[in-house]
Design goal:
- By secondary structure, the chain is mainly alpha-helical.
- It has one domain: Farnesyl Diphosphate Synthase (Orthogonal Bundle).
- It contains 15 helices and no strands.
- Helix 5 packs antiparallel against helix 6 and helix 11 runs antiparallel to helix 12.
Amino acid sequence: MLSSASISLWWEIFHECLWGKRGLIKVTNLWLPLAVILSINPREPVLPSWIVCLEILLIVECWTQAAILANDLSDQTDDSIVGKRRWISSLTRGTSILIVTTVAGFGFLVLAFVAGMKSPLLAYLGALAMALLYSVKPFRFKERGLLGLFSYAFSTALGYAVLPWLWIGSNWLALTLLGPAVLLDKWVNLHFHQLVDYEADRSGGVQSYAVRAGYKGARRLLKQVSILTSAWLLATLVFVVFLMPTWRGIIAGGSIAAILAVAVHVGIKRQNPAKATVVICELPTAYLSLTYVLFRVVPAILFLRLAFLKPMMWVVFSIMALLLMIESLHALRYQYD
């Protein structure tokens, strides 16, 4: 019979992995590359498109969760100092490492034996390697200045953009835009969180880029990278709009409406700082609008189009819509921990 502590732990794992903010919704940046690549390359793969999407989703989720759990293990001491609790830290070291290895290995096995593809396999291993180099000692790029930001962002570009591009096939222009779009967006995300964690990291001796550069210097660079990212996201959005002649008006109209809605929401929240989240206070309106539109609204429109063309794609659209809805709810009541 399971003890109350065991039941509580299993519930915590179940909650976090399914609808927690560190669970399935972490794959948000996958949807845009996947939707664009499928839209550019309308030919049916060996397996139906909806099955390929689910396979890629499963594999990317394995890589994402393995990276998160490995980082949790590496940060176990630092997290305990500032009061952060991670479920994997309550297990023995051997059990924790076994879980991380199993999750990462399962993604590898799916690629190696189900997909049987060498190129996507290299992208998966590269994404996993960069994520581990970011977190795990003795490398721990997390505490090596800009190298930490780059290694994490490059890992996400490999996993979210390069892997599906290699798997499904598409033109180089798509990858040239989508890869940096993911990389820059995740750079801003991590850079921002380092600023949020600045005091905790400095007091705990974690030499993140923000701690090394100082709060003002890191904040100044974040603003510059946010401007660059906004410009790149806008260019990618324009590319996607012109990609779909028959749906151009819907994509453009939906994007403009969403950009205005986000801008109005941010403006209203900033008038009352007590109710504004730290995300809204710290990041530029242009970036907040474009990242929401490009990585949430546009993929929803593209997958809706694919669902009308291929009815079984409604399965993928429904999963994506559910995950984006959960992520939006977390974003509206943002609290970083």
